[in-house]
Amino acid sequence: MAQKKQTSRSNPPRAHTAKCSQDGPVVVDDKPLPKKIAETPLEQKSPAEWAYERLILYIKNFEEQLDNEHEVAMGFTGGDAGVLRIEGIGYFDPDVLTFYGSDGEGMKTQLIQHVSQLSVMLRALPKLVESEAPNRIGFRLAAELEEDDAPTT
């Protein structure tokens, strides 16, 4: 019987991205994991926590490629649900993620998603007219990942 490969700090999680050209976009898989994320072995993380951390890295990387006229939003697959302008992300161990924000009409919106059904499409939306600078949630969320005393409930 084959043994399952263990992941630890010396053996980080595997990732691979194929690009059409060397000039393609910078992807999160090409970057090293932040120290705070890498120092906790995967075996000690719930599926929700690990998905939460990776989503934050993907959102931050996506935002790094946006101009000052656009903000990150999340598109929904299937149905007519539209998009969610991301204002917050959370998780509830062991297996639930939640996304907070507003829809295209400014209505308060929350999506609660089981990690086994997670399918996220990041989209660039024009920033809200009344805001001077684009809202960059990925950078704030990534900074929280680096804090030693992240709040737990």
From TrEMBL:
Q: Which InterPro entries match?
A: DUF6173
Any Pfam family hit: DUF6173
| Compositionally biased intervals (Polar residues) | 1-11
The UniProt annotation puts the region (Disordered) at 1-31
The domain of life for this entry's organism is: Bacteria
UniProt name for this protein: Uncharacterized protein
What is the species of this protein? Answer: Aliiroseovarius sediminilitoris
